[in-house]
Amino acid sequence: MTTWTDRRTTFAFTPPSDDATAWAFELRSLAAHLEREFPGAWTKPEQQLGPGHANGLSFEIQLSDGTWLRGLATQMRANSGAVSVMDATAREAAVLAVSLRDNFVPASDLIEFYSDLGVEVGRGPDPLPAQGSVEEVAAVLQEHLNTVGV
Asked: Are 105 and 90 in contact (CB under 8 A)?
């Protein structure tokens, strides 16, 4: 049984470590996806983020309970990118993860995730379940947080 917490962290969703271009990632496609999936979503292209000069997409999406999530997608090179949500609980992050898995990436087994809290203790990415409801994915994200000691 999952022990739920309201702990907030940044969750990042990425293509598999061994195939960074598996999503054929484009920021414009992600913006269109977010705006379609989350009515009222706000997206803003960002240029030359950080020392690697990545392009990015800042966004805010509203969940069905009225909660707003803030995120950032980055693209360092063609067809490769990552999508992060900041200051999110496992349940909140799972809503975006399932949306990406079911309606954005080309195949449901092409998402890995990590959290800032996991990275702090040396935990690398874990596979996102290729199937399952938002609640089931939330349980996986929460178990990840539970195992990294939060």
From this structure: no
- Is 48 in a helix, a strand, or coil? strand
In whole angstroms, give the CA distance from residue 123 to residue 86: 18
Q: How far is CA 27 from CA 2, 79, 127, in A?
A: 34, 9, 22
Q: With contact defined as beta carbons under 8 Å apart, do 56 and 73 qualify?
A: yes
Whole-structure pTM value: 0.92
Summarize pLDDT for 23-78 with one digit per residue, the tens.
Answer: 999 999 999 999 999 999 999 988 765 555 568 999 999 999 999 999 999 988 88
85 forms beta bridges with 11, 71
Tell me the residue length of the chain: 150
DSSP 8-class letter at 138: H
User: Which is nearest to 70 in space by CA: 57, 86, 82, 49?
Assistant: 86
Reduce the DSSP state of residue 58 to 3 states and report it: strand
